[in-house]
Amino acid sequence: MQLRLRTKLTLVMTSLVLLVAAVLSGVFAAQLLDQLLQATKDRAGDLAGQVFLQAQHSLTDAGQQGLRPASDTAQEIHDYVRHAFEINEGLHTQLKAAKENPLIYEVSITDQDGMVLVSTDENLPGRFLARRPPLSQLLQRNFLQKVKALAGSSKVFELDYPFSKGKQPFGEVRVVLNVGLLLNEISPSLWTSGTIAFLALVVSTLLAAIVSRATLAPLQDIAAQLDRISAGQYDVPSADVKGSGESGDELGLVSRKISQVGQQLRGVHEIFSTMRENMNSVMAGLEDGLLLFTRDSRAVMISPAAEKFLGEPAGQFLGQRVTEIFPPGHPLHDVLHIESDELSEVAAETELQTSEGPMRVSVSVQAIQEDGERMGALVTLRDLDSLESINTQLQVSERLAALGRITAGVAHEVKNPLNSMRLWLENLKESLPPEADSASQQAVQVLDKEIDRLDAVVKRFLDFTRPMDIRLEATQLAELLKEVLEVARPQLQKSNIQLAQLLPIDVPEVYVDRALLKQAVLNLVLNAAEAMPGGGQLRLVLSRRGEMAEITVGDTGKGIAPENRQKIFQLFFTTRPGGSGIGLASTFRIVQLLNGSIDFTSEVGRGTTFRIELPLAA
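Below the sequence we write its predicted structure tokens.
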């Protein structure tokens, strides 16, 4: 999101105040925490000293009571000291008083080996006590580490007060502290400093907003003037912008310059608009992909048709260098002979992998020069497969039209003799005596069947060549294709064919003749079923491609041999025994009459897929 200049200034000022407040608050919190930890350490040291003094008193009291170690061995002395600690009420009272402090987690007196002699925890005497992290180590950490330790799971630290018996170290007083509770003590101070920082932030934000508004107020006039120029009002005088155009300061000078530029832009805009409209009209009608590059090999114009070659929307490549559009490893990089962002003139053919499969592409590069100086280059990408397909469809259309005219004349010429032959054959049947030999009867029957067959052929010729009465209506293709499947379902079940269909209802309607289109798709479905006599899968898919609706009929049959692919739409061409060769030719004619197009892809041994494209009603 683009921020306004006023907002940026406000944010900068506020951020500076926030930074200062955060630093001061951090310093205050760090000092407060250090002081609190040091005070805690001092109190823990005092407590350890008091416990040690009371422990010395307990030994003195035990001596006055006549208690003595049985011998001078270390174990006897150890047991004597432990017993003196256990029976001394003053020491126990001292430990209980220490436990009342919430920061004191535990106070213990241990020998040199870590065995507990007496403790605030009644379960510890006689056990070895593991050491906790020393409190002095916590004091040496930085502020963030201290806060992490206080807020973490391990919040227990200890302060050790060693003591000796005679000249030999005997043990130590361990004061274990729960420093996590210190956060509760400094929380009020932190809240107070946070509140002060927040109030300072709010006040600084308001002051920053007021200052930035007053400072940038003249820029609003210039922004309004630029907005009017952007909206096409190129002749707005600078004096109309709240008098800023008449001022003698720098902003007034900028306003007058903007007005002059606006007047110049008006003429340029009119010329450019006319050129752009003409260029867009020309580019939209091109099937070839055109890419125009400047002297520094940046794309300044890309035709919409280039999208199928590049695989991405053409608009996103504008302004990119040729090595960014065709990087190393791109199928067209080597074909274009790109060296150091330079395009050389070239004319070649290559194969390009697209989302729809392999595509044969013609690639050419033409240098654009002016006064002998190279100004740029024009790259032309042409789909050779589409050109061949269009040429093939044109040839098929021309052949069907010519053959239709010839067939219509021949059919009419044959129809009249057939009618005469039918009449005379009927007379012959009636004139034959009942006792006529079987050979004569068989000859008459053969002639009768052959005349019927020839009459049926002539009728098919006439039906194909007769002008069709087209009745266009808005049609939901999903419903029409379901009707086709219902008609073909018995044939599909008989041939053990699995049906895979995808017929979304959100594809917009098309204007077609329902009966004709239904017949055209049915021809494709039945042909697919006949191509899979041993069973297979039939795919019927409806989809939208831009402003066209696409019907796809695919099978997993034996496919179409390469030498027959140019002939399949020709009238009377068939590879199926007993086929008429009219079905696909009729489908081709119907699709053309509905302003659509039909094409196919096939792979021997894997199947054939027919695609019908029809313009959407919208």
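The longest helix spans residues 5-64.
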